[in-house]
Specification:
Layout: H1 2-26, H2 70-80, H3 92-96, E1 106-112, H4 120-130, E2 134-138, E3 142-147, H5 149-159, E4 163-168, H6 177-184, E5 193-199, H7 206-220, E6 227-233, E7 236-241, H8 249-263, E8 268-273, E9 277-278, E10 286-287, H9 298-303, H10 311-314, E11 323-328, E12 347-348, H11 351-359, E13 370-374, H12 386-395, E14 416-421, E15 423-424, E16 454-456, H13 461-471, E17 476-479, H14 491-502, E18 507-511, E19 534-540, H15 543-553, H16 556-570, H17 580-586, H18 592-599, H19 611-614, H20 618-621, H21 626-633, E20 665-670, E21 672-675, H22 692-695, E22 696-699, H23 702-721, H24 741-751, E23 758-760, E24 763-764, H25 770-777, E25 799-808, E26 813-820, E27 826-832, E28 849-858, E29 861-866, H26 869-872, E30 883-889, E31 897-905, E32 911-919, E33 922-924, H27 946-950, H28 966-1008
Parallel strand pairs: 11-14, 11-17, 12-13, 13-14, 17-18, 18-19, 19-20
Antiparallel strand pairs: 1-3, 1-4, 2-3, 5-7, 5-8, 6-7, 9-16, 10-22, 15-16, 21-22, 23-24, 25-32, 26-31, 26-33, 27-30, 27-32, 28-29, 28-31
Helix pairs in contact: 1-28, 12-23, 13-14, 15-21, 23-24
């Protein structure tokens, strides 16, 4: 009896657990919307109660049918003449009724369950089943999809267990939140309004849509006589409304309605304000008045960090056979750094010229420096000669080797330049609409871009700026251009990332900006939010260079006038009777002698200026006499302010608006001596080539750091193209003849080390935690000797292991096993991938997410370090950046290092990546392992303990929903086992009953006898 009871209870328990598992499998947590948060990763979605389509497939049969906001869709039906939406669109009867079927597709955001692996196999299955296309990915686990009601029915039928939410893409979600807030708060007062309208790609007839929008707005707003819609590309329109003053509340309400009605079109993806006018922060300028040679510290800081040691220059790595593009105010092509007396400059004045240049294969231009000059605005340098100065830093080269000017050659002196002139310096303005389709000049009155050195970039950076540079042979683009603080990931940012994704050997570099004194998140403009580009901050040049500049190259008379102007403004000396005594004393500030008299023997500033609160080095940077400048430079208390390990006080700070590590890197740029522009009026000659005061001037800013990094990138490209890898010497045998941009970027970031000087005011970098440091310096200061191996200089350089363009998909794991064979100061492992472009709608720019993991044993204990462990405090893998770096001091010697690259989530795959490993001496333990396609199945034991490797991928073990889930197998096994036990119990009970009955029958027969 006890055994029977136990068996019965066991059977009931198995059946109950099976039922519970089956119920749990059908009603998974992710299918229950009550416990799931709204998609807060997506930019400001409206309340789910306002959605005109069902909020969520809640379980197998239940469908929510909220009210339709007639206000949102009434005009869509009325204006465009089509019935776009119906109430209760997901009603089963309506879906199955062909007469009522809505044939037009509409945009939705489909959010899948978080545990679903978004593999290429799943995407193909989804698209084939629904006959649709998964469009732009949105974090987390969401896609834009164009669906009609028939496809929605199929979605409900086949994918209900894998979908968390279906959110209709409402018109209000299409408008940039900054634009919406500015309009609501009346913080928008302009004569001309320019909007960038992006359409869903590859789905639309852009000319037809442009006509529909124009017709609708003209009908609704009859006084919009200056409205213009222009096609910029196959998925981008430019909306312009000129000479219509939008300042008062009435006009702003009108503008709100115009934007609102425009957003109703179902094919519109995003609307934002367009700002193509760039800010250029002019650095301090000093005039050289001495012909003694000067040795810049920029090169040795970036090559070795040892004074006057240039190991890469000495082996011929000078940018030879490299072409670098630069976008700036203009170029003085007659300057001795660029002039070629035999070959004229090849000017490209239009898109037709560009096509002709490419078709005739003129990329073999023999001009010694300038491969092509694209006169997008004009062909003049303007302002302070900003463009000539930055180009000289990048690739300027003296015309003859014995010239004193050669001491100031650019970082990549043997590179060729493609110059893209975005500065309008003509007094009457510039016109380019008839020559370049992406010209912005028609946006201004008179169809002319304003002159006086205004910077105007193309409306479309993909087709208007980066593509021409690439077609002209450039593989690196340097851009020292400014913008507004506080702009996030916009259409402009997306264009930059998309171009680099499409052309994976093209690296774009941007200056971070000179607004660091305003605080954190002061990157200037949306271009600085680009994840695939390198964003550059500014560090100082060496203190000895400061001393040399202050004693030999400063124009103290000019400095005296600058200080006088500041003081007269402070005390309002123009009024005539205000502060007469003080203003009279300022009149002395006309030369160095007057400056010494004004400051007195102790060089004391008698009056306080606002700039003194921000610039601790005011007494040097604003000094107007050599005596006072040297006094403060030699002051022991202030010496710390002039260390090359310091960040420049003005360098813009990160992070990006979504929290990513920006800037990426810092490089010297305060101060740098380079090209003095004569604006084309004075040609290079034997008489003036060695007149340094005529050829050079000093400037400082992130604008100067950026071309220095671009020149370094050219050296890295040459290193691989000339076959220096892997042996550290030139070779004809190299498998990286065309290195990817991600590899070049990985080398640069791997070379960086954190600075040990001042980050801000008297706060040393050492006072900050690692995450805080990245806000100021990113990954640190470049030092190529940390990342590139040279056989001639083994004592100065590190060993190098490289992987490039390796493809990985979701759930794949790649393992590389290396050893450090001799003592090394540190070990650097850097993973970089050129990520798929994000949506301007997303709050997080990362799309494809890879993980970098290092595992090894030390003193018998297993250690695991995640990429960007200093940034995340090694708590978990980084799911925000497309750059991951591990840097450990004193790595273990002759210990197997398991370097793991994991495809955590790759919705747009496969993803190519680059991996760089540096230490003093490296060797492979075994050949690197290939992909593990399905880690839920058998895993090859790469490490000594298979469970140790499994422990690094918990997300891929037992909590991932796939099309074939382990829970289902457990359910079937449990049910089968319960049935077998039940059958056994029944057989035992039946036999026992039979024997009992038989015994009773025998007893009965005995009694009858």
């Amino acid at each position: 009896m006890k055994i029977t009871t136990f068996l019965l209870l066991f059977t009931v328990l198995l059946l109950t657990s099976s039922s519970f598992l089956l119920a749990n499998y059908i009603n998974e947590e992710e299918l229950d919307n009550n416990n799931d948060e709204d998609i807060n990763e997506i930019h400001k979605p409206p309340s789910v109660n306002h959605h005109p389509i069902n909020d969520l497939i809640n379980d197998v049969e239940k469908i929510i049918k909220p009210k339709v906001q007639q206000d949102d869709y009434f005009y869509m039906e009325k204006i465009y003449g089509k019935k776009y939406f119906k109430k209760n669109i997901l009603n089963d009867n309506d879906l199955n009724n062909n007469k009522n079927k809505i044939e037009f597709s509409h945009p939705f955001i489909v959010k899948f369950t978080k545990k679903l692996l978004l593999t290429n196999q799943f995407k193909k299955l989804f698209e084939t089943t629904l006959n649709c296309k998964l469009l732009q990915y949105l974090p987390q686990h969401s896609y834009f999809v164009m669906l009609n009601n028939l496809q929605l029915n199929l979605l409900k039928k086949h994918f209900k267990k894998l979908i968390n939410k279906i959110i209709p893409y409402l018109p209000k979600m299409k408008i940039n939140p900054t634009l919406q807030n500015n309009l609501k708060q009346n913080n928008f007062c302009k004569d001309n309004v320019h909007l960038s309208i992006r359409l869903f790609p590859n789905l639309t007839n852009i000319n037809k849509i442009s006509n529909e929008i124009t017709k609708m707005l003209s009908k609704k707003f009859k006084n919009l006589i200056n409205l213009r819609l222009k096609k910029i590309s196959n998925d981008k329109l430019l909306f312009s409304l000129n000479n219509f003053k939008f300042c008062n509340s009435t006009s702003l309400k009108t503008l709100q309605k115009i934007i609102k009605y425009t957003s109703y079109h179902r094919h519109i993806y995003f609307i934002e304000e367009l700002n193509i006018q760039r800010q250029q922060v002019y650095p301090e300028v000093t005039v050289l008045n001495n012909n003694e040679p000067h040795k810049s510290s920029t090169k040795w800081i970036m090559e070795s960090s040892i004074p006057n040691q240039l190991p890469f220059t000495n082996v011929g790595l000078t940018g030879r056979n490299q072409t670098v593009a630069i976008s700036d105010s203009g170029l003085d092509y007659n300057h001795c750094f660029f002039y070629d007396e035999k070959v004229p400059v090849n000017f490209i004045h239009s898109e037709r010229d560009l096509l002709k240049y490419i078709s005739l294969n003129q990329n073999n231009n023999e001009h010694r420096k300038i491969k092509a000059y694209v006169s997008f605005m004009d062909k003049l340098d303007g302002g302070h000669g900003h463009g000539s100065h930055t180009t000289g830093i990048l690739g300027g080269k003296c015309p003859k080797d014995n010239s004193q000017l050669c001491n100031y050659n650019g970082i990549a002196k043997d590179s060729k330049i493609v110059f893209f002139d975005v500065g309008c310096n003509l007094p009457g303005g510039c016109e380019c609409e008839s020559t370049f389709n992406t010209c912005p000049c028609y946006l201004f009155n008179g169809n002319k871009c304003p002159g006086n050195n205004n910077l105007m970039t193309p409306i479309d950076l993909y087709n208007g700026l980066l593509l021409p540079q690439y077609l002209l042979g450039a593989k690196i683009s340097s851009n020292s251009l400014g913008g507004r603080i506080g702009e996030g990931y916009t259409q402009m940012t997306e264009e930059i990332d998309r171009f680099q994704y499409d052309y994976d050997d093209f690296l774009v570099i941007w200056s971070a900006g000179n607004s660091g004194l305003k605080g954190y998140m002061t990157l200037t403009g949306p271009t600085k939010q680009a994840k695939n580009s390198i964003i550059v901050g500014c560090s100082l040049n060496d203190v000895e260079e400061w001393k040399e500049i202050m004693t030999k190259y400063r124009d103290w008379n000019e400095r005296a006038k600058v200080l006088k102007k500041q003081l007269e403004k402070k005390f309002n000396c123009k009024c005539g009777t205000c502060n007469e005594e003080k203003c009279e004393s300022f009149k002395k500030l006309i030369n160095e002698d007057g400056c010494n008299e004004f400051f007195g023997p102790n060089c004391e500033m008698k009056y306080h200026l606002p700039i003194m609160n921000k610039k601790l080095n005011f007494n040097v940077t604003y000094a107007c006499s050599s005596k006072c400048a040297l006094k403060y430079l030699n002051d022991e208390k202030l010496k710390v302010l002039f260390n090359y390990q310091n960040l420049a006080d003005f360098s813009s700070l990160g992070p990006s608006l979504d929290g990513r590590i920006k800037p990426d890197i810092v490089a010297p740029g305060y101060y740098t001596l380079s090209t003095r522009s004569h604006f084309g009026k004075d040609k290079c000659s034997t008489e003036n080539v060695d007149n340094l005061s005529h050829q050079l001037k000093e400037m400082g800013g992130t604008s100067m750091s950026t071309p220095a990094v671009a020149g370094t990138a050219a050296i890295v490209r040459q290193y691989f193209e000339d076959g220096f890898y892997p042996n550290g010497e030139p070779s004809d045998d190299s498998k990286y003849r065309n290195p990817s941009a991600s590899l070049v970027k990985a080398i640069i970031l791997s070379s960086a080390r954190g600075m040990n000087g001042l980050a801000q005011r008297f706060n040393f970098f050492e006072h900050f935690n690692a995450k805080h440091r990245t806000i100021f310096e990113g990954f640190g200061l470049i030092n190529l000797s940390n990342a590139l191996k040279l056989k001639e200089k083994p004592e100065m350089t590190n060993d190098l292991f490289v992987v490039d363009r390796k493809e990985i998909s979701t759930t794949d794991i790649h393992l590389y096993q290396l050893e450090v064979t001799e003592y090394s100061r540190d070990l650097a492992i850097t993973l970089v991938w050129t990520d798929y472009p994000a949506s301007p709608l997303a709050s997080l720019a990362l799309v494809n997410d890879l993980d970098l993991i290092l595992e090894y044993k030390e003193n018998g204990k297993s250690k695991r370090i995640y990429g960007n462990h200093l940034y995340t405090n090694n708590r978990a893998p980084d799911h925000m950046n497309n750059v991951e770096k591990i840097l450990i001091n004193n790595p273990p010697i002759k210990t197997k290092l398991n370097i793991i690259v994991r495809g955590y989530s790759i919705p747009h795959g496969p993803q190519k990546y680059s991996l760089v490993v540096n230490a003093k001496q490296l060797s492979k333990v075994v050949k690197e392992k290939e992909v593990i396609q399905n880690p839920t199945k058998e895993i090859v034991a790469f490490s000594d303990d298979q469970s140790e490797l499994l422990a690094t991928i918990p997300e891929l073990r037992d909590d991932v929903v796939t099309l074939y889930n382990w829970e289902f197998s457990l359910i079937i096994v449990s049910i089968g086992l319960a049935l077998l036990v039940s059958l056994a119990v029944n057989i035992v009970l039946g036999v026992k009953s039979y024997l009992k009955n038989k015994q009773q029958y025998v007893n009965l027969e005995s009694e009858q006898q």
